Amino acid sequence: MIGLVDPHIHPIWATPWPTATILVAYFAFVLKLGPDFMKNRKPYDLRGIIKAYNIIQIIYNAVSLYLATRFLFFWDTYDLSCVTTLPMDHPHKDYERFICNIYGFNKFMDLTETIFFVLRKKDKQITFLHLFHHSFMASIGYFLLTYHGYGGLLFPACTLNAFVHVMMYIYYYLSSVNPSVQRSIWWKKYITLSQLVQFVTVEVLVIKTLLHPNCNYSKLMMWVCLIVNPIFIGLFSHFYIKNYVLSPKKSSKPPQDSSDSKAQEKVN
User: Fold this and answer.
1) Sequence-distant contacts of 225-229: CB under 8 A, at least 24 apart
2) If you ran DSSP here, which 8-state letter would residue 243 be given?
3) Other CB atoms within 10 Å distance of the CB of residue 62
4) What percent of the chain has pLDDT over 90?
C-alpha cells in the first residue's frame, strides 16, 4: 500500500476502496440498475426533496466558503507565491484537514443529483459532461490526499468552487419555487463563467508552480491538473457557447417544470 503523506487522513480516503465502491455503485445505478427499475414506472415527484436538497447545499457550501475564506486570507497560512500544504506541526493543520474533508464530502453529496435525474426519468440530462465532472470530482480526493496531502495548490480553487456552488444552488432553489423566476434571473449564465474562471485559475496556478524553482509540490498531481483542466475548460466552454451564445433565446426560456433547471444549468 502507498504510504500516506499525512497519517491523519480521514478513513474514507485512507484507502481507495470507499471511493471506488461509491463510484461503482453510482455508475451501476445511474447507467443500468436505475433505468431498468424505472422502465415501467412513472417518474417520481421529487420536488419537495429537491427543494430541501438545494437548501442543504446552499447552507453547506456557504459555511465551507466562510471557513475557507477565513483560513486562506485572514490567517497566517499559505504563501500565495507557492501554495503548498501546511507542515504537520503548523497550528492550523487540523483546521486545514477539516475544511478539506467537508469539501471532499460535498463531492459525494453532489452525486445525488444524478440519482434524482434517474428517478424522475430525465435520462437525457445524464450527459458525458455531467458524469465525467461528478465522477472526477468525487474521485480526485483520494488521489490528492494520497499523493500530496491536505490543502495546498487546489485550496484557492476549491474556495472559488464553494462560491460557485452557493450561486448555483440559490438559482436552483429560486427556480424550483417558481419557474417564472428564471426569466428575471439575469446572472444564471455567470455561474458557468465563474466555473470557467475556476478552471483557468487552477491552470494558471499549476503552470506558475511548475515554473517556480523552489516550490515543493507533487509533480504527479500537478500534471493531472495540467491535463484535466483544459478538458473541463473545453467542455464548459462548449456548454456556454451552445446555451448562451448560439441559442440565447432558447436558453432563456423556462423549463417545463421547476427542477429541470438543473439540466439547463448543470455547471457544478
Assistant:
1) 225/153, 225/154, 228/136, 229/199, 229/200, 229/202, 229/203
2) I
3) 16
4) 43
Question: What Å distances lie between residue 37 and 5, 21, 31, 47, 56, CA to CA?
Answer: 43, 21, 11, 20, 27
In contact, 217 and 209? CB cutoff 8 Å: yes
Catalytic residue (one of 130, 133, 148, 165): 133
Quote the mean pLDDT of the chain.
84
Residues 6+ apart with CB under 8 A from 49: 116
Orientation of helix 93-109 relative to helix 47-73, angle to 10°: 160
Side-chain-facing half-sphere of 32: CA atoms under 13 Å = 5
Task: Name the pTM for this structure.
Answer: 0.85
Residues 6+ apart with CB under 8 A from 51: 173, 176, 177
Residues of the chain with pLDDT > 70: what percent?
Answer: 88
Name the maximum alpha-carbon separation found in the chain.
61
Per residue in 123-166, pLDDT tens?
A: 888 989 899 999 999 998 898 888 888 988 878 888 988 999 99
Catalytic site includes residue 90: no
- Among positive and negative, which fits the CA dihedral 83, 89, 91, 95? positive
Report in angstroms the alpha-carbon separations of 99 from 138, 142, 204, 239. Answer: 16, 15, 23, 30
Which single residue is written with the C-alpha cell 449564465?
Answer: 189
Nearest to 97 by CA among 71, 65, 121, 66: 71
